[in-house]
Automatic annotation (TrEMBL):
Protein name per Swiss-Prot or TrEMBL: Gliding motility-like protein
Pfam families for this protein: GldM_1st, GldM_2nd, GldM_3rd, GldM_4th
Domain Gliding motility-associated protein GldM C-terminal: 417-522
Residue span(s) of domain Gliding motility-associated protein GldM N-terminal: 20-227
Domain of life: Bacteria
Organism: Draconibacterium sediminis
Keyword vocabulary terms for this entry: Signal
Domain (Gliding motility-associated protein GldM second immunoglobulin-like): residue spans on this chain: 331-414
């Protein structure tokens, strides 16, 4: 309502600075000063509430009281700054000491300075002095910057997600320039010129009083917000419950079982009473620690009670029960393909730590190296160890931050077995002549071997009999030569075809001599 009165009076000034208008501004200014005192009293009550809350619970209130103290000091500085500017404007336009004995004393316009001195305003309709001081000497610009700094300070005390309060502060302490009018509607004005240029002294004083009111109102809004944050920053709950957090529900025999016991959503400014297995235990930061027995394997149960004092002074109890499993250290190790490792191959290897997570296991070996692929391991032996005397695989586990050996096994290391030479899937015996003639060559086959490993024949010699003579036909690959093909076409029924001198190259780069094979032609 006061802001609306100021707008109406300002509009009237554009027509004529009449005595009645000046008197109306004096009335508005007086009303503003009374409102300023009323808001200040409300703010003092809020700060008094902060003091009382801090006495009752310093831990909870400390953060918000510190912020309220900063708010009170900065707001007082801002009010005094505007008040000092009022004093300066009055002095610049002219003032004189108050003559309290003058019977006309009550009819003048008086101003109480920041230091409490009362002076009579000599020229309340002066328009030149305020404009020169505030516009020409740019004191209004200094005022604008001070308002902006104060506004930013208030915003820093408010959470970013509280947009409504931030918007309220921006509107009450608005310093933006007025919008430009359309073409032909006059010159563009700044915030400073709009409020202080070519205005009579009494109007300027009223406007400065309004700025003080805006500061006080903004201070009140933020102070109430901070006081409400005392409860927002503490735990609010309508349901309490006992909570137990253990380092693990499954521990190895001999290791430590440890668990924290606390009341969920408890108020950190007061400690609950915690009983474990019938005994009161030490509580620190709202939590108690229980260390269980792990000297033998088995399942163990423990329980307790949390006692908590409500804001109404009533003691409530919250029981809890927890169990944990103690297991002996065990580990299972197995070669994925067979019960031995093969030299030169990537041997898949599985490790199981029981209750121990796979990521906490580490596998090492003598006579080779171990690498991890996903959740499995690959073992690559270095040397042959047919008796398994020099090849050991050890598994370590990280338990409660320490590295422990939980198992070691011995393994044999063998070489990949020799393949068997075959023709048409046969390693000898009877074969039809027409079947033999359509074969391309000799294959080296690993029978009943689960690894992806192959051999390729690199040479062989074929022998046939004709007229009592033995004929030899060599090949430097795994395929029949043209000469060998021709010999197969000419073999007699019931004659023998012998394949010898067979060599095969393995995927590991080694060459093997294979046993000869022979066929009776049918």
């Amino acid at each position: 309502m006061i802001n609306l009165m100021y707008i109406v009076l300002t509009a009237m000034l554009a027509l004529n600075v009449a005595a009645e208008v000046l008197e109306a501004f004096r009335v508005v200014d007086s009303s503003l000063l009374q409102t300023l005192e009323a808001v200040d009293m409300q703010n003092k009550q809020i700060y008094s509430a902060f003091e009382q809350a801090y006495i009752e619970n310093p831990t909870k209130v400390q953060e918000w009281k510190d912020k309220s103290d900063q708010l009170r000091n900065r707001s007082e500085e801002m009010i005094n700054y505007v008040g000092a500017l009022k004093d300066e404007v009055v002095a610049y336009s002219g003032e004189k000491p108050v003559d309290e004995d003058n019977p006309m004393y009550e009819e003048g316009y008086y101003h109480t300075k920041v230091d409490g001195t009362v002076v009579e305003v000599a020229k309340k309709d002066d328009m030149n002095g305020p404009s020169e001081l505030l516009i020409t000497q740019k004191r209004a610009n200094d005022l604008k910057n001070a308002i902006i700094e104060y506004r930013e300070f208030l915003s820093s005390l408010v959470n970013e997600d509280d947009s409504e309060l931030r918007e309220l502060i921006m509107n009450e302490l608005k310093t933006s320039d007025p919008e430009k009018g359309s073409k032909g509607e006059g010159n563009y004005k700044t915030w400073e010129s709009e409020h202080f240029e070519d205005k009579p002294l009494i109007a300027v004083m009223t406007l400065l009083s309004k700025i003080q009111i805006d500061v006080k109102n903004s201070e009140a809004s933020v102070a109430k917000y901070l006081y409400a944050e005392i409860d927002e920053g503490s735990f609010k709950f309508n349901r309490l419950g006992a909570r137990v957090i253990a380092n693990s529900n499954v521990v190895l025999m001999g290791d430590e079982y440890k668990a924290e016991v606390f009341l969920a959503a408890e108020d950190t400014t007061q400690q609950p009473v915690i009983m474990i297995n019938g005994n009161e235990v030490e509580v620190k930061d709202g939590k108690a620690t229980y260390i269980g027995n792990t000297s033998q394997a088995g399942k163990f149960t423990w329980s307790g009670l949390i006692k908590y004092k409500t804001p109404g002074g009533i003691i409530k109890s919250y029981p809890f029960e927890q169990e944990y499993q103690v297991s002996e250290p065990t580990v299972t190790m197995s070669a994925t393909k067979m019960n031995v490792f093969y030299k030169g191959l990537d041997n898949p290897f599985d490790v199981g730590g029981g209750a121990i997570p796979n990521e906490d296991l580490e596998v090492q070996m003598t006579n080779g190296r171990v690498t991890k692929r996903g959740d499995a391991y690959i073992v690559v032996p270095t040397d042959l160890d047919e008796m398994g005397r020099n090849t050991k695989v050890s598994v370590y586990a990280t338990i409660n931050g320490s590295r422990r050996l939980i198992g070691t096994t011995e393994w044999r290391v063998k070489r990949v077995p020799d393949p068997v030479a075959q023709i048409n899937g046969q390693s000898g015996g009877d074969i039809r002549k027409e079947t033999l003639q359509i074969q391309d060559g000799v294959l080296a086959v690993l029978e009943d071997f689960d690894f992806e490993f192959g051999y390729k024949v690199t040479q062989f010699t074929m022998e046939t009999t004709s007229g009592g003579y033995t004929n030899r036909y060599p090949s430097n690959s795994n395929r029949f030569t043209a000469e060998q093909k021709n010999a197969l076409r000419n073999v007699n029924i019931n004659s023998i075809v012998y394949i010898g001198d067979i060599k095969a190259l393995g995927d590991d780069g080694t060459t093997r001599d294979l046993d000869p094979i022979s066929f009776k032609v049918k």
